[in-house]
Every structure is written in structure tokens, then in C-alpha cells.
Amino acid sequence: MTTRVAVITTASSARLAHLHRQRRFLREAQSETSAAGIDLLRIEVWLDDAAPQEVGNATVLHLPPGAHGMRVGAARNAAARHAIEAGADLLLFLDVDCLPGPDLLPLSTDAPRRRPDDLLAGPVTYLASVQRPNALADLPALTRPHPARPDPAPGALAHAAPTDYALFWSLSFAVTPRVWERIGGFDEAYEGYGAEDTDFAFRARERGVALTWVGGAHAYHQWHPSGTPPWRHLDDILRNGRIFAERWGTWPMEGWLEAFAAAGAIERDGDGWRRAS
């Protein structure tokens, strides 16, 4: 039995080196799982103003930025529509910064056979700046999943409690087309940085979709410079956080907001936040 897996990545020229490595690792992963009945369909959605100058062995879509920045949620929705029309059995979303672990494809393909109605997420390791793996075989020794997220034993499926949906990250996750349609995809009101993935998880919870952590389905986030807190995304975080709060009654990214407030950049505005006056 062959399973057609659409691997969906949103990309930009700023992450081209990371994308090249991801492509190479996916080719290696595909060759190692060819006997497992996995038919891989690569879909890359480019988020820059200009269309990409070069592409890999993938279907390429182009979704320019909106008024407030890159439209990650809308890009994922467009890719999912294309994948479903192309007959995909599984939608596997992999952030452009992430490398697939040796078992990501087989375990992500097996999990929906056991939990076909769930939103499936795997553990993610953040690589250090000096860690530049060259092959799949390099990755297991680097495995160090983020301590704030579940890390079940390989092959185990751990079900999230209703209060744990805020832990969902869109760095690496999978759904069947039926579950995707049930959740309704990403809310395209979010542009720029932040909140669209937590909103997606809360939409799943609202629609009765269980969140399940897939043990051993590791992804590895490649290092890149980032601010702590992410100052260049301050206005995005305020705008998207406000949209989120209006819908769900609570603000996301609380750690960042508290850091901005401690630095005097933002202040309380009733139940919300605004730039300090």
C-alpha cells in the first residue's frame, strides 16, 4: 500500500541555505523509505515579493506578502489545497528551518493509521550554531528535544490534555486531508510573525480534534540569528496577539510580551498590550 505524503514548506530567500539542506535531507530520507511505500510530493510556497529564481524538485507556489508581512497561514492553506487536489493522503508541514529526522517520514505516515482523526505533532530539537549536520546519520546524536514540549518514546503516541494545545508548534506536524478540512486550515487574518500556529491548535480543540504527540518523529531546527525578545517582530506580535485575544480571550506569546514590557517598550492597555507612550 502506497501513501502519498505531501511535504509542505513555506520558504523565502532569507532561508535559502536552510532550504537547500532540507531538500538534501528529504531526498536522503525518501531514498531510505522508498521500500516503505511512501510517495513523496514536495510543495514549496515562496513568501517573498518576487517569485523564486531557482527551485528544487518540488511544486512551487508563490504568495507575496500582505499589508502586514509574510502570509504564512495563507501560504500553508494554498499548499494544502494543491496537495489535496493532487491526491495526497497525508499533509506533512515542515518549517523551512527544520531538517527531517531519520524516522520522521515513516512514523508520521504510521501515526494516522493508528489515530486517523488527530492533529499529529513531533518533537523538535533546536540545533546550536556550531551544529551543521551533513547527513541523516548525523542527527540522532544531536537529538535534544525542546524541554517544554512532550517527547514520547519512539513509536509511542501521547495525547494532549485540553490545556496543552498552547504547546503546539507548526514547525513539524501532520494531518490527513479529512482532519485538515475539519479544522478549517489556518486563519489568514494573521500576517507577519506569530500566533497563527496557536490559533490553528485552538481551532482544532474547538472542533474536537485531538492533539497527539508522535514519539520518535524528530525534526531538527537549524540555527539562525534571532533576538531575545524578537524586537523586529514587536509590532507583528502586538497586532497578531490582539487578533488572537479577541477570538480566544487570552494573549499568546506571553513570555515575549513580558520581556518587551520589562524593557519599557510596551504597556498594559486594559486586558491587552500596546506600545508604551
UniProtKB/TrEMBL annotation:
Residues 164-216 form the Galactosyltransferase C-terminal domain. Pathway: Cell wall biogenesis; cell wall polysaccharide biosynthesis. SUPFAM superfamilies: Nucleotide-diphospho-sugar transferases (SSF53448). InterPro entries: Galactosyl_T_C, Nucleotide-diphossugar_trans. Keywords: Glycosyltransferase, Transferase. Belongs to the glycosyltransferase 2 family. This is Glycosyltransferase family 2 protein. It comes from Microbacterium aurantiacum.
